[in-house]
Design a protein that fits this description.
Layout (H helix, E strand, L loop, with lengths): L21 H22 L4 H4 L10 H24 L4 E2 L4 H4 L3 H4 L4 H20 L2 H5 L1 E4 L6 E2 H26 L2
Helix pairs in contact: 1-6, 1-8, 3-6, 3-8
């Protein structure tokens, strides 16, 4: 079994749930709702030099991680909406590494992305809280993937995703003594 890089994956890799568990779903929703606050705490007090430091060698800068979380959350919110309102929609992936190179991800301060996350995650959590168990069993079909993804798995994935990237920033701060 391959060793997981603890700098790249400080909370481990994503483990997809095999079945729907209402209690777990509530934890995932809480994580999604809490991401903006958790991320703000992780980046609080960092100066421009620190924000422009890669969280690992060859990795994104802290600022790029923040902007990536905004990009990924927008995509995940839309995937959730499509999954709830359409029958098994195909959802397009986004080229994360290319998006991280765009001017808004490289040059813009992080505050616009933090503000976007505040509103978006409030809406996303409200949507998730309104969903029934049947809704969470609805699926999306990631373009190029072998099968369908139930919305409860998508929810788990993005709950993990936010914690994963927030932990990357927190880990960098700890390693650097910031």
């Amino acid at each position: 079994m391959a060793t997981v890089d603890p700098i790249r994956y400080p909370i481990g890799t994503f483990q997809a749930p095999q079945q729907f568990e209402a209690g777990e779903v509530q934890e995932w929703i809480a994580a999604i709702r809490g991401l903006p606050s958790d991320l703000r705490t992780a980046v609080s007090g960092l100066n421009d030099e620190q924000l422009n430091t890669p969280y690992r060698e060859g990795g994104w800068t802290v600022a790029q991680v923040v902007h990536h979380l905004a990009d990924a959350s927008m995509n995940a919110f839309l995937r959730t909406k499509w999954g709830v309102t359409e029958d098994g929609p195909t959802v397009k992936p986004f080229a994360e590494s290319e998006w991280a190179k765009t001017a808004d991800a490289c040059l813009l301060p992080i505050e616009p992305s933090l503000l976007l996350l505040d509103g978006l995650h409030a809406r996303w959590a409200a949507l998730l809280e309104s969903m029934t168990e049947a809704d969470f069993h609805r699926t999306v079909r990631p373009e190029g993937a072998a099968g369908e993804m139930p919305l409860y798995v998508l929810t788990a994935l993005y709950a993990w995703h936010g914690k994963h990237h927030t932990a990357q920033v927190a880990s960098l701060r700890k390693r650097k003594g910031w």
